[in-house]
Amino acid sequence: MTSSELWTRATADRYDAEESERSSTAFLGPTLAFLADLAGDGRALEFAIGTGRVGVPLRESGVPVAGIELSEHMAAVLRRKIDEETLPVTIGDMATTVVPGDFTLVYLVYNTISNLLTQDEQVECFRNAARHLTPGGRFVIELGVPPLRFLPPGQVAVPFDVSERHLGFDTFDLVEQILVSHHFTREGEGEGESDGEGDRYRRGSSRHRYAWPAELDLMARLAGLELERRVADWSGEPFTEDSAKHISVWRKPSL
């Protein structure tokens, strides 16, 4: 077991509704095209596959997909969508769990490598990806760039969403490279904490270890992988100093 926080049944049951925009065909189109192109005629393995937001439609597009997922509750939601024979999922952590077979693509989306809260575990995640890849195969990570330049002296929090139904902000431990994402989500009356005017809010938080692109490149080298390309989004826009996230592709050298 790694240091990743385990997602509960309640979190799993509401995950798809809260991520409905990111699950739409329009939103996922570039992601699926990017991953399918890298998988080619081979198999894809998704680390931390969750409820199958990406894995299920990628499988439905014709790419053979398998998954590893730490939370049995998240995997149970995925299983309502697709059967085990069509998309097999192994319960376990993404740093040490091994599944049968070789893959031309291993991928991690939506900041998920940050769920591993130590550098050692993140290095082992890279090694585990390399362990599963065929020669010439790729490891792909989608990860945000830490917004530390928005932290003036004395400030510890950076907002990432301020909307009618949700307030989200990150707080940072700059020594340990840990950020905590805080969420206040408005719900129906009778649920969560009241603001005194009838609305109810659910409060939640999760811990993550942030890493810079250069640190990930070193982790890849330790695992025997080479950086092939880095872009700002799934559509392939150039990665610049102003990019809020990156899609990075590392390649396992051919024999």
From TrEMBL:
<dbReference type="GO" id="GO:0008168">
    <property type="term" value="F:methyltransferase activity"/>
</dbReference>
<dbReference type="InterPro" id="IPR029063">
    <property type="entry name" value="SAM-dependent_MTases_sf"/>
</dbReference>
<protein>
    <submittedName>
        <fullName>Class I SAM-dependent methyltransferase</fullName>
    </submittedName>
</protein>
<keyword id="KW-0808">Transferase</keyword>
<dbReference type="GO" id="GO:0032259">
    <property type="term" value="P:methylation"/>
</dbReference>
<dbReference type="Pfam" id="PF13649">
    <property type="entry name" value="Methyltransf_25"/>
</dbReference>
<feature type="domain" description="Methyltransferase">
    <location>
        <begin position="45"/>
        <end position="137"/>
    </location>
</feature>
<keyword id="KW-0489">Methyltransferase</keyword>
<dbReference type="InterPro" id="IPR041698">
    <property type="entry name" value="Methyltransf_25"/>
</dbReference>
